[in-house]
Structures are given as structure tokens and as C-alpha cells.
Amino acid sequence: MTDAVVAPVEGASLPELRLKHREDRRISAGHLWIFSNEVDNERTPLARFASGALCRVVGDRDRFLGYAYVNPHALICARILGRDPGHPPGKSLFVHRLQEIDRVAPRAGEKAGLENSARVMANAEKMFAALEKESLDVLRLTGADIEARTVKRLADMRYIGQGSEITVTMPSPLSEAGVRTEFEAAYKALFARTPPGAAIQFVALRLSVSAPMPGTGGKLELPRHASADAQKGTRPVFFPDQNKTLQTRVWDRYALTPGVTIDGPAVFEEDESTFIVGPDATARLLADGSILAEAT
Fold it and tell me: What is the phi/psi pair of residue 162, to 5°?
């Protein structure tokens, strides 16, 4: 019996799977699955692919999106395997992935807690930096103002031997003392005490990045009517919870002043809609012009 020899895969030699116009947004945002209705079947018919075939996924503007394998007979017709054009599926990809794991993963014994903390913290910083870079690559495609971004670094952590973990906001920069302080504070907030002498363990690292879109952040500007004309009259309104019709005051929303509280039942009229508050609730106009209804 002889071992089979597998020829290396050259990325450029793989057939293309093209997506329709603007159907690359999900994949660019990090999704791995491609649906058959997203594929440009005129230029790259799914029928020409064998089940399990490898391909290069390309957007309608010739932008490389990743390598994938194809299942041409399924609704989810392809799955992204990697996004680095320099590492097509095959030995190159697996070696690259293993090298990345070796670069950032704790060595044997390090998972026993925060021992070897210098290496653990350095690897965690590298992972957070890589996650932030990936997140910014996605955010740039949306047009968000990444200079005004907010970054939150999170870790799922536990004491060694526990079967569940808690999510902890990480300090920046990372240090053994800072991480331990944040973990114990979060643990005490949930369970009131910490076990003495127990070792702490990272389980997973996560990153949250948000950025405002240009033009957002404005305030609601409503027309203003004379406050003396706030109550427009009354009208009968049927309330299913009471199973009866009640004579209900009708208010001009544009004539209400911020801070005013009105007991239900009440009807608030504006140009685009009507807002109704039942008899067991109150409505308060907030400073930004929105109405807050609360049960009494």
C-alpha cells in the first residue's frame, strides 16, 4: 500500500464563483455561507461545479472575497474556507492556520491560569490587535467614521475547574494584576465572594467595535404649536383590555412641552401617525420630543 500524493493547490488556478451585484456585502462583513441566489449563474453557473469542488469567490467588481468549497445542489451552495489570497485550500492553508494558533495560543500549562503571565498577556494583546484590524476592515466598507470608534475588549473567564464562565471587560494595556482585579470585581458582583487561592483562566477573547455613520447623531426636531391648543378635544376609543369604549382626550403632540405628564387614556396626534395610551398608563414627553409611556 502506498501513500497518495496530493498536488498543492494553486489559488489562481481554481475556478471562479462570481456573486451578483452588491451580493458581496454579507461575505465582506464576515459571513461564511453563500446562498445560491447570490451567485451570478450567467457568468459562473453552479451546474458546472462538482460537489465539494474548490473555487475562488469573486465579487461583481472582480474583488477577491475568499476561497470556498461548493455544493451546487443546496440552497447554501458554498462555504468560505479562507480569505487570504496567499493561502489557498490545501497544505498551505492548514500550515498557516497552525502557525497562527501556535503564535497566539497559550503553551501547555499556561491555561492553568495566569502563570507565565507575560506571555499570556502578550498573546492576548496580539489577538485583540488582530480582531480590531479585522473589525476595522469591515467597518471601512460601511463608510462608518472609524476615527470616532468605540472599542470594548472582553474576555470569557473562569476559575480553573468551573464549568461555566463570566464575561469581563479587559483593561488596556493588559496586566496580570489588572486582569485579576477586573475578573474578581465582576465575579463578586455576580456571586458576592471569590474562592481563596483559586487560579483564573482565559476561555475566549472577544472584541466589540462600533463607529458612528456620517450624518447621524442629530436630534429630533418637531414643529411647535401653541401650548394653549394642546388638547384638541375628545373622541370615543375602544380599549380591548377593558372591553369597552371610553371617551378619550385627544392631544396635539406638537403643542406639548417637554416634561409634561398626561394620564391615560389619551390619544396623541401628529402628521404621520397617532399614538394611543390606555387607561392604565401615563405618557411623558421627553426632552428630545419622544413620548415615554409607562404602565401605572
Answer: -75, 150
